[in-house]
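Entry 0007
Protein: Cold shock domain-containing protein
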Amino acid sequence: MQGEVVSYLPEKQYGFIKGDDGKDYFFHCKNFKDIQEILKLGEGSRVEFEQKATPKGYSAAQVHLVDANAPVYYQVPDTVYVSKDEKIKGWEVVDLSCWVVHGSSRHSPDDAKDEMLKGARAIGANALLRVAYHKTTGSESGTGKGTYYYTIHHFQGQAANIGKKNVKGSHEAEALRGINVRAKALKLHLMKKTKSAKKKRAIFWFVVLVGVMGLWIFKENIAIFGTVVLLFGAFFLSHATDYDEWLKEAV
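Output (structure tokens):
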């Protein structure tokens, strides 16, 4: 008997075959003649098997792929999937990277999560595993009413690429690998950008301090006014962004 695999759960090691007779046949990986063929098994795969009736329905025995030499293709998700666990039900982890993507926001957890997803897409990952959330407290000077405290939301997850073997898929396994290489290259680029920003900030503050010192050569009231203006402007203009902080290599 021949049929087509209509579903297969790698984590459960079982699935169902739609036989050419129209009946559904349950199968387990141990029912394959050659256990290595499981590595190529996906939805839509053509298989041959022996029918077996059981009290719970029909099952397949002595299963093997009709074309075991056919290339393996993957179906991938349309968006970035997230999971608190090491796996995502129904999906195979094709490439598990050693990079952790972070997302932070003082506005809401959703904004922090969106930042994390944005980071995953930047390094070509379609999944984040072992996702965790935590929050910290930030502070800034108030407008004459003391220090203002606010909550900062944080999400982080390990970047990965997942897929489902499917004869109608359009991605080969090799095309889903390489997150580590892309992440490393981006991290180095962003580190240089951060270093440049900090250097510019140092120069900026040097200019501000020289300007303040210069103002005090003049009359005191002019110096006070000019100092306030310079420091006020410096507060808003001198912040250097840590461009690479959101992408970290797992320890």
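Curator remark: The chain has a mean pLDDT of 86. The two ends are 51 Å apart (CA to CA).
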